[in-house]
């Protein structure tokens, strides 16, 4: 009670604090407008099997086409809505968009699964699977297996029972899961055993320096070893060079995503990229050399 009073007092007499709250409020209002005015869009980054060269899926990444500030990356606006209910609104918007895109591409003969990032707040809401079911029902032509949800290890960590329950329900709808940024959370091993995930994504921070930093190399090696022991497919994020690609394949990780393969692109650019990709000489010879 005394603590509560103290906080109120602080609040009352600190004009800076009020100002900050005001700014946050305005930023959130602006974000709500962006959601309703169609200023948000999804970029797509290909995920490939380096051994065969086959494109195995796409990750949907949110962008804000801001009328004054230009194209904004998630790091520039996701903090505004962090741990607020707006994360749920955004998450549902992203899932709906991804399903709509799957439906459109299906008509054009492009059949690639889409991975969607789900925030910890969103994953843990009680009617998560029910809402997902409703969204899937709007696109009856899209097989639910074409949608994969990327969740952070730390999200599950926060409330493991709720996470496991929601994930199991989504799985029964036919949707699968990936662990994102694997290796950055705590007690990775425990989670790997418990969580119903069909893909492990090793965090790009370890991949980036693996060729020069022995500790990062050790982490990458261990994660690949573990994933193989648990018989879970694994994908390396942040594959920027052929040398990274070769090292990862030698360690037993064939799936990759990164600027070396393709940067995230607007949906309209994908069909052209899909035509160009098989002709990317150096990546083709990489697969051949290793076989
Ligand atoms: P993430 O899910 O781990 O996504 C991978 C990020 O790494 C993306 O950044 C991608 O553009 C970037 N990336 C891919 N390949 C490379 C590479 O070779 N080198 C480097 N340096 N970076 C690479 P982006 O699009 O800025 O997204 C950042 C984070 O924002 C994502 O990390 C994800 O946590 C979050 N995010 C993105 N879209 C959504 C969304 O729709 N919903 C939610 N809740 N979070 C999202
Ligand atoms: Mg992701
Ligand atoms: Mg990641
Ligand atoms: Mg990340």
Automatic annotation (TrEMBL):
List each copy of the EAL domain by range.
24-278
Give the signal peptide as a residue range, or say none if absent: none
The source's domain of life comes to Bacteria
Q: What is this protein called?
A: EAL domain-containing protein
Q: What is the lineage of its organism?
A: Bacteria, Pseudomonadati, Pseudomonadota, Gammaproteobacteria, Oceanospirillales
Q: Which residues of the full protein are shown?
A: 311 to 601 of 601
């Amino acid at each position: 009670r005394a603590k509560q009073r103290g906080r109120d007092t602080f609040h009352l007499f600190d004009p800076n604090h009020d100002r900050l709250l005001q700014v946050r409020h305005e930023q959130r209002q602006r974000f709500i407008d962006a959601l309703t005015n169609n200023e948000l869009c999804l970029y797509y980054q290909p995920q490939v099997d380096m051994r065969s060269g086959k494109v195995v899926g796409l990750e949907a990444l949110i962008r804000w086409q801001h009328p004054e500030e230009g194209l904004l990356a998630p790091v520039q606006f996701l903090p505004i809505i962090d741990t607020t209910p707006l994360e749920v609104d955004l998450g549902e918007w992203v899932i709906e968009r991804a399903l709509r895109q799957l439906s459109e591409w299906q008509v054009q003969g492009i059949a690639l699964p889409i991975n969607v990032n789900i925030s910890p707040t969103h994953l843990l809401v009680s009617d998560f699977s029910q809402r997902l079911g409703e969204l899937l029902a709007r696109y009856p032509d899209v097989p639910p297996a074409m949608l994969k949800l990327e969740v952070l290890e730390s999200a599950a960590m926060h409330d493991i029972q709720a996470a496991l329950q929601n994930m199991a329900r989504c799985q029964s709808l036919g949707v699968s899961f990936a662990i994102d940024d694997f290796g950055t959370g705590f007690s990775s091993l425990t989670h790997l055993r418990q969580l119903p995930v069909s893909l492990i994504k090793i965090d790009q921070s370890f991949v980036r320096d693996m060729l020069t930093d022995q500790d990062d190399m050790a982490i990458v090696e261990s994660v690949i070893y573990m994933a193989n022991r648990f018989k879970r497919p694994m994908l390396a994020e942040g594959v920027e060079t052929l040398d990274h690609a070769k090292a990862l394949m030698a360690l037993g990780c064939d799936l990759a995503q990164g600027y070396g393969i393709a940067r995230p692109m607007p949906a309209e650019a994908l069909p052209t990229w899909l035509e160009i990709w098989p002709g990317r000489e150096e990546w083709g010879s990489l697969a051949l050399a290793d076989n």
